[in-house]
């Protein structure tokens, strides 16, 4: 039970970081917190955290952003699917290599969001929308290390 609370708390914290107000300039570089935290849990606990968690987290993100219901759910489900498919490569490599593997995974997720936003007419297409991808990939080693320490300390299995 406690381990489920730790996982839920990290996902909720990542949602809070995703919607926390920042300046317009920093907004362009805002990391994909929820995707990073979800990728970590899917990678280390695929038997507990998977597509359903990704879908529910994405719906929560859609509600918080007030955007088209299901677009973040689709993008995060794609992230979880790709992490599950690349799980063996991700687990074997060092953190910098994991970040390089996650770069296209996060990029595809952002491209799907860009495409859905352009279809709904809520945001004109722009490549500035892709800036969070390299920022998130650069943060992966720290996110992984922090969550691994938290997992070890609270015996999350």
TrEMBL record:
Function of the molecule: Involved in formation of the rod shape of the cell. May also contribute to regulation of formation of penicillin-binding proteins.
Identify the InterPro entries for this entry: Cell_shape_determining_MreD, MreD_proteobac
User: What family is reported?
Assistant: Belongs to the MreD family.
Organism lineage: Bacteria, Pseudomonadati, Pseudomonadota, Gammaproteobacteria, Pseudomonadales
| Keyword terms of this UniProt record | Cell inner membrane, Cell membrane, Cell shape, Membrane, Transmembrane, Transmembrane helix
Chain segments annotated as transmembrane: 6-26, 33-56, 68-87, 99-116, 128-150
- UniProt-annotated location(s): Cell inner membrane; Cell membrane
The reply to whether Lipoprotein figures as a keyword in the UniProt entry is no
Name it: Rod shape-determining protein MreD
**Which Gene Ontology terms describe the biological processes this protein takes part in?**
regulation of cell shape
The coiled-coil regions, if any, are none
- Domain of life according to the entry: Bacteria
Q: How does it sit in the membrane?
A: Multi-pass membrane protein
One GO cellular component, as annotated: plasma membrane
